[in-house]
Amino acid sequence: MYADLHLHTRFSDGTYSPEELAQKAADHQLKAIALTDHDTVEGCAPTARACEALQVEFIPGCEFTAAAPSGMELHVLGYFLDTRNELLLRELAHYQDVRQDRVRRMVAKLNDLGVALPESAVFELAGCRAPGRPHVARALVQAGLCATSDQAFDLYLKMNRPAWVPKEKMALKHAIGVIHGAGGVAVMAHPILNRCDDLIPSFVEMGLDGLECYHSRQSGVDSDRYRRMADQLGILVSGGSDCHGMNKGRPLIGGVKLPYSFVERLRERHQLIRDTLPAQGGDPVNS
């Protein structure tokens, strides 16, 4: 029995609908999946319904863009979130506004460069509350202004390229607090991409619950190293493909299969966190 706990849909920068994602999970015989769209839980309810129809266990989640005390960008996965939690929704609404403003600023920079991309083209293509650079790249391709999304990033959208705009980020300790306040478990995503292993103990001191030890960008050697680190620090293990549908060339779902025993440990931690919170009642993903 396996799970994939890092997946995206069209409600952020993926291309799959909730129904398509659930079907892919069933096709790969996954027992459980987590939806971790960027800065939104908008897709959790429809994905939960699609998974229920296919008898795939669903875990409501989100991928938060955070900043370490040094300013380094980190991504934190929140699992088993109460998607009706008022603080969570308020924080996400703010960062959705930030994302939309960032898109506007990138398009304005492109226009100043003579790249005639209408702002509306990006928002129409995105069709969600949490747009990002991949939507700008895809809109450039759709408008015939770039040949590929990779070219759009290389020419305009990567850091220090002419249309790049820095991203406002949530302080790491605050992000962990928001996740815990919504009854969730906070896990550092794809640590290999941050290359800050020496700082991870300090993140645990801030309340971080676990590490994404298995990821499509991490080799077996990397995964073993992060497993050992998690064990030494007494924190949990997670893993997922980080599938964005066809947005990044090929679907990754099924490429990383986390043994279900790790899901059970994450759920146990969720129960402990939830038990410390005031009862809110109701069904968090189907309300």
Q: What's the gist of this structure?
A:
This protein is an alpha/beta fold and 287 residues long. The protein contains 10 helices and 9 strands.
Task: Please characterize this protein's 3D structure.
There is one protein chain. With 287 residues, the protein is an alpha/beta fold. The chain has two domains: 2-92 and 169-275, Metal-dependent hydrolases (TIM Barrel), CATH 3.20.20; 97-157, DNA polymerase, domain 1 (Orthogonal Bundle). Helix content is 42%, strand content 16%. The protein has ten helices and nine strands. Strands 1, 2, 3, 4, 5, 6, 7, 8 and 9 form a nine-stranded mixed β-sheet that branches. Helix 4 (119-126) packs across helix 5 (133-142). The longest helix has 27 residues, at 86-112. It starts with a strand and ends in a 12-residue tail after the last helix. Residues 281-287 have low confidence and may be disordered.
Number of helices: 10
CATH topology descriptor of the largest domain: TIM Barrel
The CATH superfamily of the largest domain is Metal-dependent hydrolases
CATH architecture label name of the largest domain: Alpha-Beta Barrel
Total discrete domains: 2
Q: Mean of the pLDDT scores? A: 94
Question: What would CATH call the class of the largest domain?
Answer: Alpha Beta
Overall form: globular
Determine Rg (CA atoms, Å).
Answer: 18 Å
From the N-terminal CA to the C-terminal CA, the straight-line distance is 29 Å
Based on secondary structure, the structural category is alpha/beta
